[in-house]
Design a protein that fits this description.
The complex is a heterodimer. Chain A is an alpha+beta fold. Chain A folds into two domains: 3-78, Beta-grasp domain (Ubiquitin-like (UB roll), Roll), CATH 3.10.20.30; 87-151, DNA polymerase, domain 1 (Orthogonal Bundle), CATH 1.10.150. Helices cover 31% and strands 16% of the residues of chain A. Chain A has five helices and five strands, in the order ββαβββαααα. A five-stranded mixed β-sheet of chain A has the order 2-1-5-3-4, sandwiched between helices. In chain A, helix 2 (87-95) packs across helix 5 (140-151). By secondary structure, chain B is of the alpha+beta class. Chain B has three domains: 7-52, Uridine Diphospho-n-acetylenolpyruvylglucosamine Reductase, domain 2 (2-Layer Sandwich); 63-174, Uridine Diphospho-n-acetylenolpyruvylglucosamine Reductase, domain 3; 180-291, CO dehydrogenase flavoprotein, C-terminal domain (Enolase-like, domain 1). Chain B has eleven helices and 14 strands. Chain B has helices at 14-24, 37-42, 79-84, 86-91, 93-101, 105-108, 113-119, 126-132, 231-237, 244-255, 268-291, and strands at residues 7-9, 28-31, 50-53, 63-66, 70-74, 136-140, 145-149, 154-156, 159-160, 167-174, 180-187, 198-206, 213-221, 228-229. In chain B, strands 4-5-10-6-7 form a five-stranded antiparallel β-sheet, with helices on one face. In chain B, strands 11-12-13-14 form a four-stranded antiparallel β-sheet, with helices on both faces. In chain B, strand 4 and strand 5 form a beta hairpin. In chain B, helix 10 packs antiparallel against helix 11. Chain B is globular. The chains are: A alpha+beta, B alpha+beta. At the A-B interface, strand 4 of A face helix 2 and helix 6 of B.
Chain lengths: 160, 295
């Protein structure tokens, strides 16, 4: 039986009727047409479906749409401000951190969640923050550089 | 990947959740963070006809210190919250470290300590940490409530001492005595999103900063059908001055208590060697922390 859910997506109130077995990812992509979050592995391993739920990055393929009822969701589509790209998005373009682009929405949202919490992260913190986002082009170096550039810092290395 | 159809329940009180569990019991799955349950349902390993979400049951996500004596952790507390909680990092270190090594950041934002314990996977991160801290699990049902020590809770892969009509509501930890230190060491092929090849939690109590060991607990994961306490290795440590040779002996004794398997993550032989190495390492780290103990 379908359930009515109301949530905030990218600052806008949204209402939908969903079967309980629909994921937040499928609701965003199919019902709202927000195809920025990608369907990768579907099992929480690749991070392509990353969205920010109540301020925290989550795998939207492992969240039921009904679980997002009453909550706040930010997708990559909501990151630009009145057509002006977010500084992390700018840095990704500037640095060449985008190749095929499949992981980019997730990478950028993981980076945003990190910078919201710790505006001047070390390289270790950056690598840890994106450790659940796989880049199939293996363009990690540029991605880390882009996030460093967005934060305006440069330090330490390994994943902790 | 599609989820099979199910009926969804979203209780907003504990009473309602317990009543649903007693009515639906065996046909229902409890949904907390969903990082295990939804994966198993997508893979069609689990096909429950009912799913009971406990995300909106108030109080399950609280970390409540009990004076200086201990802390009560709600079953719905996420790994991310435990990993960054100051008291947990300071006094219940294996718990915070295990929480910080579970999955990846996005998984840690959803995965709960209760789910990780109840799933009873042999390689899970929380069980060894809870075992060295002698955690007590509080299980509730509509008409009853009982406390079960975590040491003894696990019966086999995916099998724990909890009935279908029961809900794990909280986990109680006593604060380790002064001059205690703990650690959690995990070995996998990579550092994140990894299921352990071997994991070790240790808790060591010293008589004083440079004194002998007065108590030690070691728990090993991914080395047998359930995580195991290495009691013989613990006994060997008590009363002795910490040293590399002693940790080595404890590691060798620990291997004898395991029955690891060969699978795609590693061979039985490699696991045995790593139990020895990781036990030694975990003890070294625990003693370092114990020596730096501050009131």
């Amino acid at each position: 039986m379908k359930r009515i859910i109301t949530l905030t997506v990218n600052g806008e109130p949204v209402e939908g009727a969903v079967e309980p077995n629909r994921t937040l990812l499928s609701f965003l992509r199919e019902d709202l047409g927000l195809t920025g979050a990608k369907h990768g592995c579907g099992l929480g391993d690749c991070g392509a479906c990353t969205v920010i739920l109540d301020g925290k990055p989550v795998n939207s393929c492992l969240v039921l749409a009904v679980q997002a009822d009453g909550r706040e969701v930010l997708t990559i589509e909501g990151l630009a401000d009145n057509g002006k790209l977010h500084p992390i998005q700018e840095a990704f373009i500037e640095t060449g951190a985008i190749q095929c682009g499949f992981c980019s929405p997730g990478m950028i949202l993981s980076a945003k969640a990190l910078l919201d919490e710790s505006p001047k992260p070390t390289e270790t913190e950056i690598r840890t923050a994106i450790s659940g986002n796989l880049c199939r082009c293996t363009g990690y170096q540029k991605i880390v550089e882009a996030i460093l550039a967005a934060a305006g810092t440069a330090q330490g290395k390994e994943v902790s | 990947m599609l989820l099979p159809k199910f009926e969804y329940h979203e209780p907003t009180t504990l009473e309602e959740a317990l009543r649903l569990l007693s009515e639906l019991g065996g046909n229902a799955k409890v949904l907390a963070g969903g990082t295990d349950v939804l994966v198993r349902m997508k893979q069609k390993i689990d096909k429950p006809s009912h799913v009971i979400s406990i995300a909106r049951v108030p109080g399950l996500d609280a970390i409540t210190p009990r004076d200086r004596h201990g802390v009560t952790v709600g079953s719905g507390v996420t790994a991310a919250d435990l990993a960054r909680h100051e008291l947990i990092r300071d006094r219940f270190t294996p718990l915070a470290l295990a929480a910080g090594r579970l999955g990846a950041p996005m998984i840690r934002n959803r995965a709960t300590i209760g789910g990780n314990l109840v799933n009873a996977r042999p390689a899970a991160d929380f069980p060894p940490a809870c075992m060295v801290l002698n955690a007590i699990l509080k299980l509730k049902s509509a008409h009853d409530e009982r406390e079960v020590p975590v040491n003894g809770f696990f019966r086999g892969p995916g099998d724990a001492l909890i009935e279908p009509h029961e809900l794990l509501v909280s986990i109680n930890f006593e604060t380790p005595p002064p001059w205690s230190g703990g650690s959690y060491v995990k070995l996998g092929a990579r550092k994140t999103l990894e299921i352990s090849m071997v994991n070790v939690a240790a808790l060591v109590t010293l008589e004083s900063a440079d004194g002998p060991i007065t108590a030690a607990r070691i728990a090993l994961g991914a080395v047998a059908p359930t995580p195991v306490r290495a009691y013989a290795a613990e006994e060997l440590l008590v009363g002795k001055q910490p040293s590399e040779e002693l940790f080595q002996q404890a590691g060798e004794t620990g291997v004898g208590m395991c029955s690891p398997i060969t699978d795609h993550r590693g061979t039985m032989e490699y696991r045995c060697m790593m139990i020895e190495v990781l036990t030694k390492r975990a003890l070294r780290l625990a003693v370092e922390q114990a020596r730096a103990w501050r009131p």
